[in-house]
Specification:
The protein has about 220 residues and is an alpha/beta fold. It has seven helices and six strands, in the order βααβαβααβαββα.
Length: about 220
């Protein structure tokens, strides 16, 4: 019989100016667009109407994430804590460059491993995975409760991998999780049995199809 539970929500920030313009954002501080703010408000209203309870919100310090978190916190009356470990992947000198610039660089590499840095001077897959694992480990040192982690697509992808026990693969192979702007995932963890229940992944029922299609 299941006992103590950690209810863990993972939320990607709303649409930002970097998303709207097709930039590789990394740790550069692109703000939310008005659409991104609306996405956060709609989700907050959905959760309030559905009686979702949160004990604490943990957020990346970057404004596109922090503002998303604050909109939800204000609606649900939940405290916020900033965690530097929830920052997006450091993409080095490619920060602010068009997304396809990284694709061009990767296409010229004969083979890549997860231990290599991102585009030469950024944070590699293994580094990001280990940081995501630290986020998860730190969370589970807290008392059982309901937690919302608001972060970025790259970090949340590796955090989801950590929950599933999937390590980074060579040559960009393996499993990837599609995580849209303002989408959330929910996992319930029962520490007395070491059981993860996967409740939902990339849930965006609160968004219109146009919201989902825009990157």
């Amino acid at each position: 019989m299941k006992g103590r539970c950690y209810r863990v929500y993972l939320l990607r920030h709303g649409r930002s100016l970097g998303n709207a313009n097709g930039f590789l954002q990394g740790q550069q501080d692109f703000p939310l667009t008005e659409e991104g703010r609306k996405q956060a408000r709609v989700l907050a209203e959905r959760w309030q109407a559905g009686g979702v309870h949160l004990d604490l919100i943990l957020t990346s310090p970057l404004s596109r994430v922090r503002d998303t978190a604050e909109i939800i916190a204000a609606r649900l009356d939940v405290p916020i804590e900033v965690d530097e470990l929830l920052l997006e992947r450091d993409v080095g000198s490619l920060s602010g460059e068009p997304v396809n610039r990284h694709e061009e660089l990767v296409s010229h590499r004969p083979f890549t491993t997860p231990y290599q840095s991102f585009s030469g001077d950024g944070e590699g897959d293994w580094q990001l995975f280990l940081r995501a694992g630290q986020v998860l480990s730190n969370l589970l040192q807290r008392k059982p409760g309901s937690y919302l982690l608001v972060s970025h697509g790259g970090l949340l992808n590796q955090l989801t991998h950590a929950i599933f026990g999937i390590i980074p693969q060579a040559n960009r192979q393996g499993v990837r999780f599609k995580l849209d702007n303002a989408s959330f995932s929910q996992f319930d963890y029962y520490p007395d049995e070491h059981v993860w229940d996967v409740v939902t992944v990339n849930n965006h029922d609160h968004l219109s199809q146009d919201d989902i299609n825009e990157k």
